[in-house]
Design brief:
single chain; 18 helices; eight-stranded antiparallel β-sheet; disordered N terminus; alpha+beta
């Protein structure tokens, strides 16, 4: 976690409203130096900008006093972007905020704004004005007896969004299908205004619990069917129907029924049924990165080569279900299935015709009588096959239309361009797969032995095509069979590869393999800031079941701003408190304020001077820690390294850390070092990992989906923004946007989607057999105010995943974060601690 001051806040993704609206609107330039109230404001020269002046507040201005800047015109209610230059003429300049006003009411446009003395900085914020305004207010937000930060070069841009973004966001959410049919027209009707948004949010939060339970019930009912278990399903099905009311009583009754039902099924099956709670890291991971593109939906399936396919419109009446391998969208005229069990995406049509919107695709080859055609993008071929006959296939620049001789199924798959000559054979293979399509999987873990049984759809075919009979092999199982992988499964059966590498066990509907020995370091704890805990804090954590502390060296004890003796006293004081509390190990984290300035881009790690400074700092810290080695479990060398594989080579970072580990080893004894992955320790950065030495722990952080875990932190806690709920549809990530939201790409987030983000973590476990640590995760926004149930579900799913992986994990955090302050999230974490102490 990159820690920010309470004033500056954090820019993260939440909610769901489009900020792109009105981007082309002409900005309105404000000249504060010409139209400010001279009785309360003062003019200052902007450092480094000759002839430019800004407006600040006098030193004797009381807290919440303000200076009026007349805008000279009336602005409508709506959402605006405000950009401005800040400057300060002295140290500890008073913090200011900008407000807008029409009449007597003052509406906040920015939270606290700060600036260093003699410096200038440019900021950009968004705000929503619930009524018209004609004045800008520069308001003092603290009681400092100093001149304030000054503002200059102010521009306002009308985003042309007149409706409250929070309301717009929930309307957008309801345009996507509800999981498991959890719809309520009465709730949707409340979105006509803002007076009942609290009820809508409470209902959506309860729906999260219902969606989680109904998803689990769906899997267990499938297991009952696929494994041919004895006994009736009727009671479970009745409990599922009752739970759709979302009433707490019915939901808890379903939870109890699920526990009983699962125990009965597992007794019959002889093992653990839930793939989320076992120890198998070779299992199915619902990640479309395996196939080289983002998770598709019928609303927009976008591929790595820029190709786009849209089968449905947002807002259509669609039912939706999500299992650990498959997502299914059902409209009145079709069912669309996306599954990681096979490379095929399948459309089951109830009519003869289909029209779809396409992008960057053009017709390549077609053989309608043989039941296939192909479209081409710049880099790939998309082969469409059917079990019927294509009577017509039309492809234009933006539209694909086809007609079958009778309602049937159409599957499509993405293949390499150099396979064009093999299209007839490819088409025949995929037609055979369409005739015996694996659609779902049930897993039983019996100690080290894993058994997976598959459910299929059998379809007739107009042509003499032989069905492809076989059980698909999980991608990570295939990966483990490579000679270079450290962890290897013992696989029961010989396998066969399809034309594009899809691997399966022929003439079987199940696979089985045995798990190898692997390193497990499962312990759990929390991050603690140096200025946010006392001896009693650690005693409380110990009593609650906490096992590890990630001690964050930053905040008020910054490296340059605090004398060495004071820093040493702080570190040793905390280590002493932890030792006294007993039973906990410490990971000492060199956080952002303690590693050298300038380490914020790829090139920094090629600077010998920065390397030397970094190592010297660590030598100093290690000398402080020498008397406390008995409580120190590891040294986290650098928090969230700002080196990105998209921006340049990452080898310099690996070499930097390799040299640092070698130089520091004599000073650390046998205590391991933890080195975090590139890309600010995101799971995706683990994919670029390079070995940096022996006895090194691979570190990463897991906050996905950020729009949930950092809720309402976006744009400095703007409460006009919509909240998010989990499991549910949410917008994607666009890191370059001020809000981080990408409203063009919505996806369903549940525990299986979160697992998919961790695919590089699963892979490195298998490939290298390394020791791993998730140093940060948790709900660090304002989620407790709107989505407490969702937050608790996410926390449980995350901790179950870490336990399955067998890795240490520390939530964020006591001080500087919000997990500890969200009652539902804290309760879930403490429950897990106690069950796993």
């Amino acid at each position: 976690m990159r820690v920010f001051s309470a004033v500056v806040g954090m820019i993260v993704v939440v909610g769901s409203c489009c900020l792109a609206r009105g981007e082309d609107a002409a900005p309105f330039v404000v000249h504060p130096e010409e139209s400010f109230n001279k009785e309360s404001g003062v003019l200052v020269d902007v450092p480094g900008k000759k002839g430019q002046r800004g407006v600040g507040l006098r030193a004797d201005m009381p807290r919440f006093g303000w200076c009026v800047i007349d805008l000279g015109r009336k602005f409508e209610k709506g959402r605006y972007r405000i950009a401005l230059t800040l400057c300060a003429t002295n140290e500890k300049a008073a913090t200011v905020g900008l407000y807008v006003a029409g009449g007597e009411d003052h509406m906040q446009a920015t939270y606290g704004l700060t600036c260093e003395a003699g410096k200038t900085r440019t900021v950009e914020r968004y705000f929503f004005a619930p009524e018209g305004f004609s004045k800008l207010l520069l308001k003092k937000l603290d009681a400092a007896a100093t001149p304030s930060v000054a503002v200059a070069e102010v521009t306002l841009t009308d985003m042309k969004q007149r409706e409250l973004p929070r309301l717009t966001g929930y309307r957008t959410l309801f345009e996507y299908p509800a999981p498991w049919g959890l719809r309520n027209k009465d709730i949707e009707g409340m979105l006509s205004g803002t007076d009942r948004l609290g009820e809508v949010e409470a209902w959506l939060d309860r729906r999260s619990r219902a969606a989680e339970l109904l998803g689990r019930a769906d899997y267990l009912l499938r297991a009952h069917r696929v494994l041919r278990c004895p006994g009736s399903r009727a009671e479970m099905e009745r409990a599922c129907v009752a739970a759709r009311s979302l009433e707490p009583k019915q939901l808890e009754e379903l939870a109890k029924s699920l526990g009983v039902f699962q125990r009965e099924l597992e007794k019959f099956a002889g093992g653990t049924l839930d793939p989320a709670t076992g120890t198998d890291v070779f299992t199915w991971v619902k990640s479309w990165n395996v196939f080289g593109y983002d998770e598709p939906t019928p609303f927009v399936a976008s591929y790595g080569d820029g190709a786009v396919l849209r089968l449905m419109k947002r807002g259509d009446a669609v039912d939706f279900s999500s299992s650990w391998t498959t997502s299914v969208y059902t409209r009145a005229d079709m069912t669309v299935r996306y599954s990681v069990l096979s490379p095929l995406s399948v459309i089951d049509l109830k009519t003869k015709e289909l029209e779809a919107e396409i992008g960057r695709l053009k017709e390549s080859r077609k053989a309608p009588a043989e039941g296939w055609f192909a479209l081409a993008s710049k880099d790939c071929l998309y082969v469409f096959v059917t079990n019927r006959t294509f009577e017509k296939v039309d492809c234009s620049e933006k539209r694909l239309a086809f007609r079958l001789n009778t309602p049937g199924a159409v599957g499509y798959v993405r293949v390499a361009m150099d396979q064009e000559k093999e299209l007839p054979a490819l088409a025949q293979f995929y037609q055979g797969l369409l005739m015996h399509e694996p659609i779902e999987c049930v897993q039983v873990q019996k100690g080290r032995r894993i058994e997976q049984v598959f459910e299929y759809v059998d379809r007739p075919c107009d042509r003499p095509v032989k069905p492809v009979l076989g059980a698909p092999v999980p991608y990570l199982v295939r990966f483990s069979l490579r000679p270079s992988s450290q962890l290897k499964v013992k696989f029961d059966s010989p396998t066969r590869e399809g034309p594009d590498g899809w691997t399966y066990v022929p003439d079987s509907e199940r696979v089985a393999y045995e798990l190898p020995d692997r390193p497990r370091w499962h312990s759990c704890g929390i991050n603690v800031m140096l200025d946010s805990a006392t001896a009693s804090t650690y005693r409380e954590l110990h009593d609650l079941g906490c096992q590890t502390i990630r001690l964050v060296c930053e905040t008020g004890s910054g490296w340059k701003g605090t004398p060495a003796e004071e820093k040493k006293k702080l570190v040793c004081q905390h280590l002493g408190w932890i030792r006294e509390a007993g039973g906990m190990k410490v990971g000492l984290d060199l956080h952002n304020g303690w590693f050298p300035d300038g380490m914020n881009d790829n090139k920094a790690f090629e600077d010998p001077a920065l390397w030397q400074e970094f190592v010297e700092r660590w030598k100093t810290i290690l000398s402080w820690c020498e008397p406390y080695r008995d409580v120190i479990g590891w040294y986290d060398l650098m928090n969230e390294p700002q080196i990105f594989f998209e921006r340049g080579p990452v080898k310099p970072y690996a070499e930097f850390m390799r040299k640092a580990v070698r130089a520091l080893r004599p000073h650390a004894g046998e205590t391991p070092f933890l080195v975090e992955a590139v890309n600010m320790a995101n799971p995706g950065g683990v994919a670029m990992w390079e070995d940096v030495g022996e006895d090194v722990i691979v570190g990463y952080h897991d906050y996905w989906p950020h729009m949930l875990t950092h809720e309402w932190s976006v744009e400095h806690g703007d409460e006009t923004m919509p909240a998010t709920f989990y499991p549910s549809f949410m917008p994607g990530i666009n890191w370059s946007s001020p809000s981080w939201r990408d409203d063009g790409l919505w996806q369903y987030w549940d525990c299986w989607k979160c697992n998919s983000v961790s695919l590089p973590v699963y892979r490195i476990l298998i490939e290298k057999g390394v020791r791993l640590d998730c140093g940060e995760y948790g709900v660090v926004g304002y989620l407790g105010q709107t989505s407490p149930i969702s937050g608790a579900i996410w926390m449980r799913h995350a901790m179950d995943r870490f336990k399955r992986l067998g890795i240490n994990h520390n939530a964020w955090g006591v001080g500087g974060g919000f997990t500890w302050n969200v009652p539902s999230a804290k309760e879930e974490m403490v429950r897990f601690w106690r069950e796993n102490r």
